[in-house]
Specification:
It is a single chain. This protein has 7 helices and 7 strands, in the order H-E-E-E-E-H-E-H-E-H-H-E-H-H. By secondary structure, the protein is α+β, with helices and mostly antiparallel strands. The chain has a single domain, classed as Electron Transport, Fmn-binding Protein, Chain A (Pnp Oxidase, Chain A), CATH 2.30.110. Strand 3 and strand 4 form a beta hairpin. Helix 6 runs antiparallel to helix 7. The relative contact order is 0.18.
Amino acid sequence: MLVHPWDEATTDQRRKVLAATDFGQLVTAGLVDGYPVVVPTHFLHDGDATVLLHLARPNPLWAALEQDPHVVLALALGETYVEAAWNAAPGSDPALGVPTSYYTAVQLRCVAEVVDDPDEKAAILAAQLAHHEPPGSTRRTPSAAEEADRRLLPGIRGLRLHVQQVVAKQKYGGNKQPTHRAAIAERLLERGAPHDARAAGQLRAQDPPHVT
């Protein structure tokens, strides 16, 4: 992922994204049939350097991990299209403007540890259920000692991802002048497409009003 100096997310910004996002795409370095395996999945980040998840045993990801345990957990959110005329530099011909996209992206570069021990798999499931299930959920904590769970556990494998590096960007016109960002924010709010309001908020957050 290309990250310009003006797009690079701060540590605080990327932590907020990871705290609020629990679905992404897991991409393998190892290949299956000549291609990386890309798995859309829920996950649980511990706020530091570990990610927990589980996948079905027939998933082709396992074959890719046997070749190479390196993976990338990729998150992309808040995407919106910036029209060419809006993105044209002030004073230039809007007909020659170059469109762009605004979005937030975080990529966790990890080494994957496969978890097959029944008790450890049950612990991963319990942690995920505690995170994802709503308050008052009647789903009991999984246990290798519970007959129903004991029968189901062989059908999955757990994954513990050890985060080695985080690459993150918030692409919201960081290379533009405040007046240009403000004008684009207004256009986004007028259009009102999905994620436009969020992008406008990100644009404005870079240039908070002057307080006297």
